[in-house]
Amino acid sequence: MAEKALNQPDVFIWTGTDKRGVRVKGQTRGTNPSLIRADLRKQGIVPLKVKKQSSLFSKGVKKKIVPKDIAVFFRQLATMMAAGVPLVQSFDIIGRGHENAGMRKLIMDIKYEVESGTSLSETLNKHPLYFDELVVSLVGAGEQAGVLETLLDKIATYKEKTEYLKSKIKKALFYPTAVVIVAFIVTAILLIFVVPQFEQLFSSFGADLPAFTRVVVNMSEFMQSYWWVVIGISIGGAVGLMQAKRRSRKFGRALDRAILKLPIIGPIMHKAAVARYARTLGTMFAAGVPLVEALESVAGATGNVVYSDAVLMIRDSVATGQQLQFAMSQTGLFPNMVEQMVAIGEESGALDTMLNKVADFYEQEVDDAVDALSSLLEPLIMSILGILIGGLVVAMYLPIFKMGAAI
């Protein structure tokens, strides 16, 4: 099996003649041309030419595999299995029809692993970059219980809803980031290229410049001399911030805690974390995963270190025999409505249903909050850009107004 993993099948293009003597051509995956020729003869085709397909002319463009590709893959797989298509054949149909060559290769690799006798959960576990522990656990539970088709549908729904939620969060964060970047670029262009032209004009006046104009001129001179320092600090600061969050758990926890306290973005991030928690836990519990084991996987899916630590605390409390609702109330992070719905779910034996209702409610809350934020930021963007650009224009024209008044 290790040798199989190291020597993944390549795509070979072949031409030959069938039993009627008609020339045919196609492509097949295999490890070497000899095996391809032997396989073609078994099918009644006389091989004339077999050659390995060059990666330069391979079908599709190899792009980075994004989470959305994985979500679509699970939806397609769930649909195929619900229609009665065998698992291996489903992989073949989905893989051959995928436009992304990178995703196509991943699917075909999974197909060959499953064909060799490896379970689907073990195969997915070999690709942790694309399939997290939560997905592997759900697939494993489906295989053991004999309800893989049902679990694949749940995974597809879970992936679609989490990706939709992520897109809404990105949309909420995009506008403030865009305002900062656009304002910085426009201001830098004005200071480096436009203000110096006015400065040359002002130097011929021989009069003192207004204080506001002098400040802008000094900023322009600094930008002309040290623009590379400003750009370097800006890019370095952004990259350093991301690396520090990724490498330092302490810094990441402090940053996530700070984000949750922001006036407008904070409530959205709170609701998104609660929605992810409820959606993930509800999906895993419905799949039959034990609650303590499910909570361990849920901790990494909340998207915020503060909530991740809280879920681990909940797991430890539940492991000692406490009710889920009481353990959640001890963290002080979950709204009272969520705690009460979880309590009702525990008492009625419908915890997964109540958690999914909580997830639906908070996903809608995030959706509405992002739409409201977008509407609020549109005039704010115009105001900020107007103040920056208008301020620079006024600073440049103040000396001209002053000279006109003197005349």
Strand proportion, as a percent range, falls in: 5-15%
Give the helix proportion (percent range): over 70%
The H-and-E topology, N to C, reads as HEEHEHHHHHHHHHHHHHH
* Anisotropy-based shape: flat
Radius of gyration: 30 Å
Terminal CA distance: 91 Å
Mean residue pLDDT: 82
Furnish the topology, listing elements before pairings:
Layout: H1 2-6, E1 10-17, E2 23-30, H2 33-42, E3 46-52, H3 67-82, H4 87-97, H5 101-115, H6 120-125, H7 133-145, H8 148-203, H9 211-247, H10 249-260, H11 265-286, H12 291-299, H13 305-319, H14 324-331, H15 336-348, H16 351-406
Antiparallel strand pairs: 1-2, 1-3
Helix pairs in contact: 3-4, 3-8, 4-5, 7-8, 8-9, 8-11, 8-16, 9-10, 9-16, 11-12, 11-16, 12-13, 13-14, 14-15, 15-16
What does this 3D model show about the protein?
By secondary structure, the chain is mainly α. Helices cover 75% and strands 6% of the residues. A three-stranded antiparallel beta sheet has the order 2-1-3, covered by helices on one side. Strand 1 and strand 2 (23-30) form a beta hairpin. 28% of the residues are buried.
Task: Give a brief rundown of this model.
This protein is mainly alpha-helical and 407 residues long.
Keywords:
mainly alpha, 407 residues, flat, 6% strand, three-stranded antiparallel sheet, 16 helices
